[in-house]
Write a structure and sequence with these properties.
Radius of gyration: 27 Å
Structural class: alpha/beta
CATH topology of the largest domain: pyruvate-formate lyase- activating enzyme
Shape: globular
Helix content: 25-40%
Number of strands: 21
Distance between the termini: 81 Å
CATH architecture of the largest domain: Alpha-Beta Horseshoe
CATH superfamily of the largest domain: tm_1862 like domain
Mean pLDDT: 93
Strand order of the largest sheet: 2-1-3-4-5-6
Low-confidence stretches: 448-462
Number of domains: 4
CATH class of the largest domain: Alpha Beta
Number of helices: 23
Length: 573
């Protein structure tokens, strides 16, 4: 009997592949088929051996921008070890240029687009030795121009990909991906979603049934894959209502939102009805330059967008993640700085400065020469320069992006950074992170140590493997000292909030270990003080950090049994 193994390589262990599960439930009643997921950390040789050990005759691989290199090595290994193995590729990376992969990889077939039902047709043809004449399937000597679109009502009639027994025990520790629609009406020339302009929706009954199951079974992170979740206001409202009515603590729902389309009544409803931190909105702003947005076919009412983001931020219920893309047409370094400062002014929980990728199949890649683009030939095809932006400027932007991730988006410095951006020169947010990055990388480049690549091939953006938490706090502390900004106590508070139990010290201890132990013992022996504050000697000696305020006055930070809760007291001799 013909055995089929589906596989993909996820970026991280916590990620899951909805595509693998959909292909599986669409075909497991007709074929001996199973699926396996790996991560980028897994050895490719081991993956090949693991797949072949199943005795499979066919391997189907999901190829994406993050795993294309590993998949290329994997296909070569599989064919070398088992030459008669049939390899089928699918996924966005291979969909739009199947001839390239057929010419350069040792594979047999490529399925372009949504392959849930196309795969079954292909497997049936292989099984019965019939000629493969199937739309959306390419092979050597035959390239299909068709991109498959599955009937969502048919998918909804299948067994649920969200309810597989093997996922039930692990979904609490994974990011679970869900889609309630497919397609995007917008034509952003850098994005693959713009290729499919028709938006199709799954039946709401199907969506609600699966949400019920996931919530009942303890899912913690639920990420909706819809390209513009709030495109259809009625659809979005129905899903939001359902999730609010089924709220469960310690669960996070993430959506991609087009902020221009948010209606005032929707914002007011969310700000009123949502529990805090239950929803996370990813909002792609990309650029605040009108000429740049026009060049990439992006319609954006920035005034309305800004108004809606401020209203969401003021509500304090939704975690906001705002995206910018560096390297878009006509946006010079100075204009990127302006876009960054415009967007950072919202003080969102996360601000991501990403870098343009010339994805296969996109309009912008086809017209790259018009804008003088240079970009990496290999995935992820990141832009290295264009006519108005040099390679050195891109590297400088990468350093700033890294620093923003480290000091703002990480959430480790939330008190200090909010105080700093409010005390630094108003509105000069990029300049602040640029200065932080300059100091950070100048020190880094003068130090020795093992390195690993970050986003750029440039040496200056390489990170040491053993760069510790202490180092990040020390760097920021020294930066504050150089600017004569006194935020030491605030920074120390941020440091303590990185730990669930008392740390041994911090980057600038003012008490030696012996003195600290003696003082905590003395406080633990002060019974009157302990009784007044409902504390125990054990809590003081085992779970309390102590820092001097003055000669006879000390700040105590107490780490309670609740890992998230800490509180401070002052003890005087």
């Amino acid at each position: 009997m013909m055995k089929v193994m589906l596989a993909t390589i996820n970026a991280k262990y916590i990620h899951t592949s909805l595509a693998m599960r959909l292909l599986y439930v669409a075909n497991n009643n007709r074929f001996d088929i199973d699926f396996r997921e790996y991560t980028l950390k897994d050895d490719t040789e081991r993956i090949a051996e693991d797949l072949l050990a199943t005795g499979c005759d066919i391997v189907g691989l999901g190829v994406y921008i993050w795993n294309v290199r590993q998949c290329q090595r994997l296909t070569a290994l599989l064919k070398a070890k088992q030459p008669d193995l049939i390899i089928i590729l699918g996924g966005p990376e291979v969909t739009y240029e199947p001839s390239f992969f057929l010419d350069n990889w040792p594979v047999d077939y490529i399925v372009s687009g949504e392959g849930e039902f196309v795969l079954g047709e292909l497997l049936e043809a292989i099984k019965t030795h019939r000629p493969v004449d199937i739309e959306s399937v390419s092979y050597r000597g035959h390239i299909s121009p068709t991109i498959a679109q599955a009937d969502l009502a048919q998918i909804a009639a299948l067994p649920s990909p969200y309810k597989l027994s093997e996922d039930r025990e692990v979904m609490q520790n994974k990011v679970v991906y869900m889609e309630t629609s497919r397609g995007c009406p917008f034509r952003c020339s850098y994005c693959l979603a713009s290729v499919e302009k028709q938006v199709r929706y799954f039946p709401l009954a199907y969506v609600f049934d699966n949400l019920d199951y996931l919530i009942d079974n303890g899912v913690r992170q639920l990420k909706f894959l819809d390209r513009t979740f709030n495109l259809n206001q009625q659809h979005a409202s129905a899903v939001f209502d359902f999730l609010i009515n089924r709220y469960r603590p310690n669960m996070l729902c993430q959506f991609e939102i087009y902020a221009d389309l948010l209606q005032e009544k929707m914002i007011d409803y969310l700000n009123t009805q949502l529990p805090p931190h239950y929803f996370r909105f990813e909002i792609g702003i990309q650029s605040t330059s009108e000429s740049t947005n026009k060049a990439i076919n992006r319609k954006q009412d920035y005034h309305l967008l800004a108004t809606n983001i401020r209203k969401l931020a003021e509500g304090g219920k939704i975690d906001l993640h705002l995206d910018l893309i560096a390297g878009l047409p006509y946006e010079s370094f100075a204009q990127i700085v302006q876009s960054f400062n415009d967007v950072f002014a919202f003080k969102a929980k996360e601000v991501q400065l990403g870098f343009l990728k010339m994805l296969r199949g996109t309009e912008l890649r086809q017209h790259a020469a018009i804008y003088g683009y240079t970009y990496d030939d290999e995935a992820p095809y990141e832009v290295t320069s264009h006519a108005g932006l040099s390679e050195a400027e891109i590297d400088r932007l990468r350093r700033v992006a890294y620093t923003v991730e480290k000091y703002w988006n990480s959430g480790r410095f939330v008190r200090t950074m909010h105080a700093l951006v409010n005390s630094y020169e108003q509105g000069k947010y990029f300049e602040l992170f640029d200065e932080l990055a300059t100091r950070f990388f100048a020190r880094l480049s003068s130090s020795d140590g093992a390195c690993e690549g970050h986003e750029s091939k440039s040496e200056i953006t390489r990170m040491p493997r053993q760069y510790q938490l202490e180092d990040t706090f020390r760097d920021l502390h020294n930066f504050l000292l150089s600017k004569e900004i006194d935020l030491f106590t605030t920074l120390r508070t941020d440091y303590y909030h990185c730990f669930s139990t008392r740390p041994s010290g911090f980057w600038e201890n003012t008490l030696d270990k012996k003195t600290r132990k003696r003082l905590l013992h003395e406080i633990g022996s002060d019974k009157d003080w302990l009784n007044r504050h409902h504390l125990t000697r054990k809590l003081i000696e085992k779970r309390t950090a102590i820092d001097p305020i003055s000669t006879n006055e000390y700040q105590l930070t107490i780490f309670t049994e609740d890992k998230q809760e800490k509180y401070s007291l002052v003890w005087k001799r």
